Amino acid sequence: MGLSPFLQTEISSNTFLLPFLVPNLYLQLSALQGTWSDVCCYSNPFFYLYPLPFPKSKLEEEKEQEEAGAGEHHHLHHSSCHECLQLENTTIESVKFASAENIPELPEDCSSTAGEKGDEWLQKGVKRINLAGKPPNILIYLGSEAAKGRFEQVKSVLRECVDAESYTIYQLHQEQVLRDPWIDNSLLLVIATEEPIPEGSHKQFMTFLSRGGKILGFSSSFTFGGVQLKHKNKLRKAVHELLVSKKDSPEVKLNLLVSGCVFEEGMKGDGSRVKVWSRLNNADKDPVIVHLTHGSSGGEAILSQAHLELDSSSMDVQTEEDFNLLKMSNSKRYEVLKEILTCLGLSCESSEIPVLTPIYLLSPDEEIHLAFLKWLEGNVDAEGLRPSSKVSLKFISSCESKVEVTPSLMPVLTEMSSFSSQHFSLETYQQHLQTKKLGKILLFTEVTTTTMNLLDGLMFELPEEMGLIAVAVRQTQGKGRGGNVWLSPVGCALSTLHISIPLHSNLGQRIPFIQHLVSLAVVEAVRSIPGYQDIELRVKWPNDIYYSDLMKLGGVLVNSTLIETTFHILIGFGFNVNNSNPTICINDLIAKFNREEGTELKALSADCLIARTVTVLERLIEVFQEKGPNGVLPLYYKYWVHSGKQVRLRSEDGPLAWIVGIDDYGYLQVHQEGKGVESVHPDGNSFDMLRNLIVPKH
Predict the structure, then answer these.
(1) What CDD domains does the record tag this protein with (predicted)?
(2) pLDDT in tens, 545-559
(3) CA–centroid distance for 13 within its chain
(4) For residue 354, is the peptide bond before it cis, meaning its omega torsion is within 30 degrees of 0?
(5) DSSP track, 298-309
(6) Considering Cα of 321, then 323, then 328, then 334, what sign does the dihedral take?
(7) Residue 609: enclosing H or E segment and its boundaries?
(8) What would the pLDDT profile of 397-418 be if each residue is shown by its tens digit?
(9) Can you give the pTM of this predicted structure?
């Protein structure tokens, strides 16, 4: 019995595939014992503060209110919520017309006001690479060229220049330029095609510049601001000597392939906005690299008609002499390219890929640790191997056993007394973990590929009371939503948690809600600490953790597998705790709060916050299973960033709608004038799930 082609397509492409949309889905998956991947995701020294148990839960504080309105679906805060009463008494007029939906008036979000620039406080001493506050994405545009080799070629040279732990690199396809919301979600656009730029795409690129974006042109036809190209075919596919101007040092001479075009001398427009960086060392001294600025928001472009992205292995290299010239200039080519990228605001400090390290089997509960070792005896082979299609684990007692660490085979040290780490304290984790089941068996490693793979070979057979969690200091292949990369520098809280949910339960019928609960748990883990309740940490639908509504500092990835009547769910969550790059971290927010309020709140650590997050999550799941969405939505709305916000439906120019809440299945609800309240879902773009929202057909 197999899935129909339609259902197969839906399962792979629809993030929010729900039971009420496809009634037979669960039955078929149960029969197949197949996998339903809800890739619901997701671009970081501690003093013990306050012992758990937590202060009285926000959920408990609102218990009476919830019971009184048990039959209602809460769209936003209760009108009597203490925080709401302190906010400005501003409402969204259009929502008032939806009284039939029992929507209370919407308070404005208590995030920073429009007059407070997101980076003003950064000038007070907190240094970051990404001052623009944009997601650290580099996009490569190749026009209609479909050759993967060209993308890999450009990506490879950029990877060798920029800090690999600070940026991710993606291809921007032709069809995405007008369709997807990449403009506000990228730091740098690299245009690497000689094709003419379509008018609509050129307009988008100029919009990107006007909003502070940076553009690097590799022998492209893209120009603006009066700059013109002149064709000189005799220069094409030949190596020529360039003279490159340097700010505080003599000009550099190097040999590069040239596109066959140069920039016109005597360019039109504002000369102060156009600077020549490099010329050919020929009789005409033709300009081949120019720097242009655009607008008042810091937009700038460096356009090169010299092939900075090509080396001596290029198919355009015709002679041995050209090969030798390019080889001798290779180090200078990288020097020039790094200077260009640095000028455009990127960090080119090199960082080596860390070596994979062994895993430690840890537990805050000695009894459960011994029970797990007993279980292992009957569930590994004679060599201690637990095979898996993703990562096989080899359980050994100590490091004396020589086992190589590879992406597919990792040793697990079972003797806890040998464990020590400067980045993770088992004692701190134990102090803050107050769960019945979750997070009791811990696989810890300094460096791994991705924590999402470490539990795969254990989770289906391990007794439920031995809740599994994997924690890493660094990941080399962190995973994000829709194939995105999750950057994982030191200072990030990185973990994957296993939970099991009965199919026939409140949460089992609303699996996409898990991402909301995890995001909420991260925020509540910080803001439920006495004194930290006003730290501007918030949730962004559906699965991001934000500083106010300005910058992302964490995210969630959920993978679900249905076996018979139980969902086995791997929850990957990562959030910046002590790393200011590539965006911002929780300890930055604490330092900011201390400066502004004159407080002395102490910095937090990843081990503390992972444990608190898991503890809060278990409580949220219990409340949800008992009361459904209404049990958790008041707290969720207290912390989300969307109050009083508008979105456009279907496209960048689509109709405006007000965000009013989420429905019982986790979909975003919006109010469009004249149409009442509707549930919407993302269109599948990988840049911003709040852009181009689609109203599903009923």
Answers:
(1) BPL
(2) 998 887 788 989 899
(3) 19
(4) no
(5) TEEEEEESB-TT
(6) positive
(7) helix 606-627
(8) 876 656 788 888 888 898 888 8
(9) 0.60
